[in-house]
Design a protein that fits this description.
The complex is a heterodimer of chains A (106) and B (743).
Chain A lengths: L5 E5 L8 H10 L7 E6 L8 E3 L2 E3 L1 E6 L3 H5 L8 E9 L2 E11 L4
Parallel strand pairs in A: 1-6
Antiparallel strand pairs in A: 2-5, 3-4, 6-7
Chain B lengths: L3 E3 L2 E7 L9 E7 L2 E7 L12 H5 L1 H4 L9 E3 L8 E3 L2 H19 L4 E5 L8 H8 L3 E4 L7 H10 L5 H5 L6 E5 L3 H4 L1 H12 L3 E6 L11 E4 L5 H14 L5 H7 L5 E3 L8 H4 L9 E4 L4 E4 L13 E3 L2 E5 H9 L4 H8 L3 H13 L3 E5 L9 H14 L11 H5 L10 E4 H10 L7 E5 L3 H4 L3 H8 L5 E6 L11 E4 L8 E3 L11 E5 L12 H11 L10 H9 L2 H5 L4 H6 L2 E2 L44 H4 L2 E4 L15 H4 L6 E4 L1 H6 L7 E5 L4 E8 L7 E3 L11 E2 L11 H6 L10 E6 L4
Parallel strand pairs in B: 7-8, 7-19, 8-18, 9-10, 9-17, 10-11, 19-20, 20-21, 25-29, 26-28
Antiparallel strand pairs in B: 1-2, 2-3, 3-4, 5-6, 5-21, 12-16, 13-14, 15-16, 22-23, 23-24, 25-31, 26-29, 27-28, 27-31, 28-30
Helix pairs in contact in B: 3-20, 5-15, 9-13, 9-14, 9-15, 13-14
Classes of the chains: A mainly beta (106), B alpha/beta (743).
Chain lengths: 106, 743
């Protein structure tokens, strides 16, 4: 009986640590890609802020990057099941962003 | 140790060795003897069930194709990379013979071990050093001893963070030179919890970090000037009389009289014949007399100048007031490049908020005077009563006491080892064994190390899991185990409130791969070949029992049986003193540093300051901060993390880039008199103009040329040597950057 996993991420607290991206690799035995990409909302490039001092700012967004078709044949002998990836902004449920694939556990 | 059976999959508890200090519990999934997955292990407090990208990626070290698989003997020149596979017997017999020869020729102390670990059993190398009466390096000066010197002077302990942070509901959190969002993610959780309970978060840093991105206020400061910032805040608070006098009287040396002539605390025997030579004296305004500080009902003066016959004296607090006079916000603004109003407003906020949690990082104390900035910040917290007056307890250090049960070795601070190898000062070192440490990559002045130090060594042994930058210079390389392949006892490293106050067992999850051996086994077998086998008969489990059989764990009833059930919380000892200084109080006035002129906190310009003459040649301050993608040089070769950060890059402000005709992505050369490195540049607004940064831990291979440690220096700060241990001032370095033009 396959479980379905979801990620509930409070972007107010997200520090761009990439642990979710690593966990996706771990669950799916993915070597070179992850089903999740952490992106900086700010300047150009990872962790670069927007603006000029003293008005600097940066935040992070969590993005599923594999399409369903990509994830149906990952380098993983066991077929993955659906993952509901949701996030909420602050305390209010913001949007159910997407439905993507992450391996389930037996 | 098997904890759960689930078909063929076994779940085994381990502990993350990423050495950020958090010691997260890990649950290893093992199928048919193969590690298939790791996840965070359950902890007694569910909030402590956590893991980060490094902890997850650590699994990928185990089956990495570059693992060292069998012992190697050097056949070319040192560093040339020519090796021959040899048997363990040959390796250990060669090492045993060489250690005996060198010990006989130069004295046993010339044999040195350099080991950096969070594990208890890895300290078996100190037992070996003890048996041979050799030298064991204290590695804390690898960047982490300046702040501890400051805390030792202030509090009498080396890790005083809980004094400044152990508050339930702070109104203000000042995060100073610290980037926990990357370096200690679970400390960041606590800070975010504080914010959600109403705390205002202020980050002071030359870089706009991931932590700064989460703050209410970001203050950009010139690197190495934080002591001036704190002293400027002290100036404002004292000037406006916003200090907490009852806290100062009860918990600090503030009221204690200091003899103006000698600079020493006045003691009772100097005032009354037959008085105690230990008792500090205070001035009682009501009677107009000097009395012992603990006289019943006494209300001591904190300010003023007093006369006792021919002796002029002042309360230490008055001396602080006098010192703080020198640090007006205007002057401090000129030093720190922080606006005067920002300094003044933060000082007022600090004084009016209660409590204030002050988080100090290890980054900014990697400046030459890093001890002074900790002392200045500790003093700021003290005068506003924002110190939690309970001494932290560090059972981790007591554990190692068992090692002295055999014989004692000589301990040597790592920076002192440079001169010992180079100049025979205070005695020559001729053999070096490095384990779980990467000297060439992680210690300062790599060119001095490889060109001047290592050639003076007659034997270099490195036990590692990869052919590290240091292993390349070895005569014999021994293939060691990852932490998944060996058992250990992981003690509580509870030095901040977010850290884990548990003792944990790290169970061996899989058998050692290839011909790799755990360090305990390496030492046992070597000892056998040196005729010391009797001292090393204990199994790993017996060694763990030995570690638990004395000191803190014995007192607290922490036994192997309990640990086999899961992590055991390390409770504080009852009736522990507030401060472990000589006075039993917080000492912002440190008698021992009188001869350095540093008895009070003060600001001293960085050793390599762009405002000094050297700045004409090398105008940019060079930082080597820590990243979320590695811990030190560990994990730098793990693909899972490299995919996220494929190569080193030099962060620089667009102003500095444009002045050098450098575009984002250009290849640049970074250099000073000591060395150079070549890498890509990344120009962005998140770093202060005049400052450049590359995250530390990259291997020399990852740079286009050179490495970051070629640029750093090994200059010793004598004040730190007097208090505790001199630190490597990695962030007190000047460089110049130039664009590399295609030839």
């Amino acid at each position: 009986m396959a479980k379905r996993y979801g990620l509930l991420i409070d972007l107010e607290r997200c520090t761009g640590c990439h642990t979710c991206a690593m966990a996706c690799k771990m669950e799916n035995s993915l070597e070179r890609v992850s089903g999740i990409r952490v992106e900086t909302i700010g300047g150009v490039g990872r962790d670069a802020p927007a603006g000029v001092y003293p008005d600097l700012g940066a935040a992070y967004s969590i993005n599923p990057i594999l399409s369903d078709s990509e994830c149906s044949s990952p380098p993983n002998p066991e077929p993955p099941s659906k993952l509901s990836l949701a996030w909420y902004n602050g305390w209010r449920l913001h949007s159910l962003h997407s439905t993507r694939l992450i391996q389930s556990e037996a | 140790m098997e904890t759960t059976e689930n078909n063929e999959e076994r779940l085994i508890r381990s502990v993350c060795h990423s050495a950020c200090g958090m010691v997260c519990g890990l649950l290893a999934h093992v199928k048919d003897g193969v590690l298939t997955k790791v996840e965070p292990a359950d902890m007694p407090n569910p909030q402590h069930r956590h893991i980060c990208a490094r902890g997850l990626a650590s699994m990928k070290m185990v089956y990495h194709p570059d693992r060292l698989k069998y012992p190697l003997k050097r056949v070319g020149e040192r560093g040339e990379g020519k090796w021959q596979r040899i048997s363990w017997d040959e390796a250990l017999e060669t090492i045993a013979a060489r250690l005996n020869d060198i010990g006989e020729k130069y004295g046993s102390r010339s044999l040195m071990w350099c080991v950096a670990t969070i594990g208890g059993l890895d300290m078996i190398y100190a037992s070996l050093a003890g048996c041979l009466q050799g030298t064991f390096v204290s590695i804390i000066g690898d960047g982490d001893s300046a702040g501890p010197c400051g805390d030792m002077a202030s509090f009498g302990v080396i890790w005083g963070d809980t004094y400044l942070t152990a508050f339930e509901k702070p109104e203000l959190c000042v995060i100073w030179g610290h980037n926990p969002a990357e370096t200690q993610p679970f400390s960041m959780r606590r800070i975010r919890d504080d914010r959600e309970r109403g705390a205002r978060i202020v980050v002071i840093d030359p870089r706009f970090t991931a932590t700064a991105a989460k703050a209410d206020q970001y203050i950009r400061i010139r690197p190495g000037t934080d002591a001036a910032m704190a002293l400027g805040m002290i100036h404002v608070i004292l000037e406006q009389q916003l200090y907490d006098s009852s806290f100062m009287i009860r918990n600090t040396v503030g009221p204690f009289l200091v003899n103006s002539q000698t600079g020493l605390f006045l003691k009772e025997n100097e005032v009354f014949a037959g008085g105690s030579e230990q008792k500090y004296m205070v001035w009682e305004t009501a009677s107009g007399e000097a009395r012992a500080y603990d006289a019943p009902g006494i209300v001591p003066a904190l300010t003023g100048v007093y006369r006792l016959g021919s002796i002029e004296c002042r309360p230490a607090f008055q001396l602080l007031i006098d010192r703080a006079q020198e640090y007006s916000p205007e002057k401090v603004s000129e030093i720190t490049e922080v606006p005067t109003e920002t300094i003044r407003n933060l000082a007022l906020d600090y004084a009016h908020s209660r409590p204030v949690a002050t988080y100090r990082g290890m980054g900014f104390q990697r400046t030459f005077h890093g001890d002074l900035l900790f002392r200045a910040i500790n003093t700021l917290a003290a005068i506003t009563g924002n110190l939690h007056p309970v001494a932290p307890q560090l059972p981790v250090y007591e554990l190692y006491a068992y090692l002295h049960g055999i014989m004692t070795c000589s301990f040597m601070p790592i920076l002192k080892a440079y001169d010992a190898i180079d100049k025979g000062d205070p005695y020559p070192i001729k053999a070096l064994w490095i384990a779980k440490q990467n000297w060439v990559n992680q210690l300062p002045d790599a060119n001095r190390v490889t060109r001047e130090l290592f050639p003076k060594l007659e034997l270099i042994v490195v036990a590692d899991i990869f052919m590290s930058a240091s292993a390349r210079y070895a005569d014999i390389v021994l293939p060691a185990c990852t932490f998944f392949e060996q058992s250990d006892l992981i003690p509580s490293i509870n030095v901040t409130p977010s850290m884990m106050d548990y003792f944990q067992l790290q169970h061996k999850a899989i058998e050692p791969l290839y011909e790799c051996k755990p360090d305990t086994q390496i030492v046992r077998e070597l000892a056998g070949k040196m005729g010391l086998g009797d001292y090393f008969e204990k199994s790993d489990e017996q060694l763990i029992e030995t570690l638990l059989s004395s000191g803190y764990p014995a007192e607290m009833g922490i036994t192997l049986e309990k640990l086999k059930q899961g992590p055991v919380k390390a409770p504080p000892r009852p009736n522990f003193p507030s401060f472990l200084t000589q006075s039993g109080r917080m000492e912002f006035y440190c008698e021992r540093l009188l001869e350095m002129g540093q008895e009070l906190p003060c600001y001293l310009e960085p050793l390599e300051s762009a405002r000094k003459p050297l700045g004409q040649k090398y105008p940019l301050v060079f930082l080597t901060t820590h990243t979320r993608f590695r811990t030190h040089s560990t994990l730098a070769n793990v693909g899972w993390l490299r995919d996220l950060e494929p190569e080193p890059y030099l962060e620089m402000n667009p102003v500095d880039a444009e002045a050098r005709d450098i575009q984002d992505g250009d290849t640049v050369r970074v250099f000073n008199d000591r060395g150079r490195m070549k890498l890509k540049a990344k120009a962005h607004e998140g770093i202060k103009p005049g400052t450049v940064n590359v995250t530390q831990g990259w291997w020399p291979d990852h740079f286009l040329e050179g490495s970051h440690q070629e640029l750093t220096h090994s200059v010793i700060n004598r004040a730190q040597e007097m208090i505790y241990e001199p630190n490597s001032a990695y962030y007190d370095v000047l460089v110049e950057v130039e664009k590399v033009r295609e030839e």
